[in-house]
Design brief:
Length: about 230
Amino acid sequence: MARLPIDVDVARRQHAAYEQTLREAGYRVERLPATYQIPDSVFIEDVAVVVDELAIVTRPGAESRRAEIPAVADALARYRTVRTIEPPGTIDGGDVLTVGHRMFIGRSTRTNGAAIEQMRRLLAPYGYVVCDVDVRGCLHLKSAVTALTDDTLLVNPAWLDRGAFSDFELVETDPGEAMAANALRLHDRVVYPTAFPRTAERLASRGLRLALVDASELAKAEGAVTCCCVLINS
């Protein structure tokens, strides 16, 4: 299916509102330099996985994204010990869902088994259990599942094997909103796109505090609310 053109001015306004939503939730927003040579760098999540103990700089599956690695590594070094994924491993942060000390990693067109094994070795000393999950029907795992709380996940059941998440309560997206499973969990609220009102009603009915944002322009490039930041807990 052909992609729709992105209105860059609208995208910038939406991204500024997204940043303001993070600030209003008590987060400090740090921007990294961007150039026309790295147009996908707005989707910074793909280049790093950060946990309390360390930061892992990924090796993105799209070769064009690898020019983003040095700036992200330098920025993260101020907050965490940095480790890197080495060839032949490839992994996008969008395929990594961390819930407590369990990390689910999607096997996708961007993330391979070699990288998953490296992640497992890097994280094992800190008590993380890495579970690999096959991705189907979407680009990244977090298009199909994201965390709402420590024990509740938002899922599109058509795009994942529910058995991998049997220990969690699963909230399904509305059947008419296929892309609605991506939510950004903050410490006291959930950032969620305005494009999926029926799924948003399901979340609000559970007592979740939603911070609604318009992410319609970046969605044209398969972007979502988790994609545009790397959260670092102090």
